[in-house]
């Protein structure tokens, strides 16, 4: 059982650092045993250096997959987090490649997919997980630049990457998109972020209808409050007090840990979910949402 941890007011600067997170997030349960669910597979996890993406990458490796991850370029905290998860994946006996990439640019996304396929010989699982948020409580002061950057990061990158990856995916391969509970509850201080997460839900459903006949599954995960570096680097930077008892509003009364999401990505990447596509899974501490 994952125990509630005390989270207190704090802040970081974007993009945030896993190493500086306090308390440390749990990436994988000590008792999690892999069973080869992803043996022989190659997975690409964007934003795999920290948080939910880091946990997904580590769980994939424990299930036998080789993993490529991306992280933001020109940032030493990101690079250090990427090197540390690479080492953990290699300790699992799997290969890992790390790529510093600005996913907002289509040409970078195309090159990334080509590089991963060249390095590993194939691609079976694409996890579109990288994202950002910038709190703002008054739409009239939300800058055009912030709006465009949030969309470029959170949804346009998914289009670019998925478009480039699809020619390499075959029957029983999968695409997993990270959306958010916020797409369903609409927090007033995250309008641009929430809009992109709603777009991810709709993109997931429509793309699933387009490719399900080819045996490619497309699903999404909509986390509730999960303890990752994004929280102190965005909410905490805006107002550190927002992180006091972070996650207390959920029915479970606590924030989730990345270790509670990694197995969901394994499920959606593996044949355990062979009859599931176009769906959204809601690890959110018991919050009731529609859809």
UniProtKB/TrEMBL annotation:
The keyword Oxidoreductase applies. Coiled coil: none annotated. Keywords: Oxidoreductase. One of its GO terms (molecular function) is oxidoreductase activity, acting on CH-OH group of donors. Residues 1-22 are annotated as: Disordered. Gene3D superfamilies: NAD(P)-binding Rossmann-like Domain. Pfam families: adh_short_C2. The keyword Oxidoreductase applies. Belongs to the short-chain dehydrogenases/reductases (SDR) family. PANTHER family: NADPH-DEPENDENT ALDEHYDE REDUCTASE-LIKE PROTEIN, CHLOROPLASTIC-RELATED, OXIDOREDUCTASE, SHORT-CHAIN DEHYDROGENASE_REDUCTASE FAMILY (AFU_ORTHOLOGUE AFUA_4G05870). This is NAD(P)-dependent dehydrogenase, short-chain alcohol dehydrogenase family.
């Amino acid at each position: 059982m994952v125990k509630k941890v005390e989270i207190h007011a704090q802040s970081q600067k974007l993009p945030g650092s896993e190493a500086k997170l306090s308390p440390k997030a749990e990436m994988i349960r000590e008792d999690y045993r892999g069973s080869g669910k992803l043996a022989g597979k190659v997975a690409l996890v964007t934003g795999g250096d920290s948080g939910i993406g880091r946990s997904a990458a580590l769980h994939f490796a424990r299930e036998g997959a080789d993993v490529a991850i991306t992280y933001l370029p020109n940032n030493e905290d990101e690079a250090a987090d990427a090197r540390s998860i690479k080492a953990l994946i290699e300790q699992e006996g799997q290969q890992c490649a790390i790529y510093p990439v600005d996913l907002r640019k289509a040409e970078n996304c195309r090159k990334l997919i080509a590089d991963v396929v060249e390095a590993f010989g194939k691609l079976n699982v694409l996890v579109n997980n990288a994202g950002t948020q910038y709190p703002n409580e008054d739409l009239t002061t939300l800058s055009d630049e912030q709006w465009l950057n949030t969309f470029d990061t959170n949804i346009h990158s998914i289009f670019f990457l998925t478009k480039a990856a699809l020619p390499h995916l075959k029957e029983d391969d999968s695409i997993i998109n990270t959306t958010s509970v916020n797409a369903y509850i609409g927090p007033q201080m995250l309008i641009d972020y929430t809009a992109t997460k709603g777009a991810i839900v709709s993109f997931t459903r429509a793309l699933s209808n387009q490719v399900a006949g080819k045996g490619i599954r497309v699903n999404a995960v909509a986390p509730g409050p999960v303890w990752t570096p994004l929280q102190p680097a965005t909410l905490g930077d805006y107002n550190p007090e927002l992180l006091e008892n972070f996650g207390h509003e959920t029915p479970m009364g606590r924030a989730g840990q990345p270790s509670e999401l990694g197995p969901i990505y394994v499920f959606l990447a593996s044949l355990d979910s062979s009859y599931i596509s176009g769906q959204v899974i809601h690890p959110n501490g018991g919050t009731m949402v529609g859809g």
